[in-house]
Write a structure and sequence with these properties.
Pfam families: DSBA
Subcellular location: Periplasm
Shape: globular
Strand content: 5-15%
Family: Belongs to the thioredoxin family. DsbA subfamily.
Oligomer: single chain
InterPro entries: DSBA-like_thioredoxin_dom, DsbA/DsbL, Thiol_disulfide_DsbA, Thioredoxin-like_sf, Thioredoxin_CS, Thioredoxin_domain
Largest sheet: 5 strands, mixed
Number of helices: 9
Organism: Salinicola acroporae
Number of strands: 5
Length: about 210
């Protein structure tokens, strides 16, 4: 009850734009003990959503997050990482990385999540996933090959290592510059997560300017 009340207060506090000066470490976001190296040019700020296709909170976050991403400035690079926490999560993570490898993830993403959350499909069997992929211009053979590829297995291993490095036990999360973690609890609501992330982007810019 107290936790819910605090979350409600946070949601009210951040109902509008949030500035770097407004956010508090350990309250609105967490700092990673050992920051991860980002995979973007030095003049870019990386923001990564950590998600699971089957997560109802990730599903609810899709619309506000996509709207936020569409308005990100040129110095911000947005990426996604599927979290392989458990067997079902791992099968969905394999689907994500295989779809990305095939170049169809952006196109099939909403449909895949709708199939899980609206139609009640599990989509954890590789044959079912491959069949789903055939609706996006790839053959079932191509899909199965991607699902079993070394590249996808490597992506799963890297994602698992990053989850441990970030000390993440759930989703969704937003990681800013490989150092700052925003969760629904810290942000106060799903809708506030992009707002806190925007403030952290500003914070990273300020830190970089100060270090020059």
């Amino acid at each position: 009850m107290i936790k819910s009340f605090v979350a409600l207060l946070a949601g009210l506090t951040f109902s509008g734009a949030v500035m770097a000066a407004d956010i508090v470490e350990g309250q609105d976001y967490q700092v990673v003990d050992e920051p991860m190296k980002t995979e973007v040019p030095a003049d870019q700020i990386e923001v990564t959503e950590v998600f699971w296709y089957g997560c109802p909170h990730c599903y609810a976050l899709e619309k506000p997050l996509n709207e936020w991403v569409a308005q990100l400035p040129d110095d911000v690079t947005f990426d996604r990482m599927a979290a392989p926490l458990g067997r079902v999560w791992e099968q969905h993570a394999i689907a994500f990385y295989a779809a990305r490898q095939l170049g169809i993830e952006d196109e099939m993403r909403q449909d895949f999540m709708d199939a899980i959350h609206k139609q009640g499909k599990r989509l954890t069997d590789k044959d079912d996933i491959a069949e789903f992929f055939t609706h996006y211009g790839v053959s079932k053979e191509e899909a199965l090959k991607a699902l079993d590829s070394f590249g996808v297995k490597s992506e799963i291993q890297q994602a698992s290592a990053k989850m441990r490095g970030y000390q993440l036990m759930g989703v969704p999360d937003l990681i800013v510059d490989g150092r700052y973690v925003v969760t629904p609890d810290s942000a106060g609501s799903l809708e506030n997560m992009p707002k806190i992330a925007s403030a952290l982007i500003e914070k990273v810019r300020e830190e970089r300017t100060e270090s020059e």
